[in-house]
Here is the input.
Amino acid sequence: MMETLRGQRSAVGGRRSVGDAAWPRRRCSAGLLRTACYLLLLHFTAGTCTAQSTGTVRLMIDPGHDFQFVVDHKYRMQQREVKLGEGLHHFSLWAPERMVVDTALFVVADRSVDLVVRLPYSPEYIAYRDALVRYQNGRKLRLVAPVLFGAGVLWTGLSYRAYDRALDQLETDREAYTSSTDPGRIADLKDQRIPEHKQDLRRARTSLILGGSLTALGAGVWWYVLHRTKNFDAPRFEDREKVRFEGLTWMPTTRGGVWAAGITIPLAR
Here is the structure.
């Protein structure tokens, strides 16, 4: 009877063979292999689709150097070509001494497009340039005014010397005319020498007046220039557009990214 029960147990729920026990493991390994193949295929397919959906943007910016731009309010770059995904993208462009210009551009996949933008000068730079011109003109006047005054003094001195000589010569001619008894000499003094020396005296007097006027003008200009430029300091350019451009910019990191705020503080005096 015991043998009969053992036979029935063996027939109904007996031990499994070694091949039957390894079958689930082989089935699980095959499933994992198929999943890995599907993932690799999906990865390469997605990479190919991504590569095919990008376009190239060539930036032709005035000025042609030292310009920067921010794409889609996130990524700050400084290059002449950039590859972007297909779609509408926002550009903020800036260069030193220029204004920030915002523009949008639609990028088409597998195509190149030119972005041509002229960055206008910023109002702060225009005001700085005008102030610099005034400052440079003031410096030139501060150099010219003393030269003008010195030229007037020199002219006045030479004219006074010529006037003094002409006056002495005319007095000598008059004394000779009064004391001379020679009719020929008297006629020469009266008709030629005295009129010539009178003309020399008039020219010397006119030159003396002009020299004195130039001296007075030079002194007045010198005082005016010194008075107007006594508080003249060299202008400094504060690029507010740069501060605006360097505002909040998204900087990608290994942990996702951070918002970075930039500010420029002029330390030079």
Summary: The first strand starts at residue 54 and ends at 62.
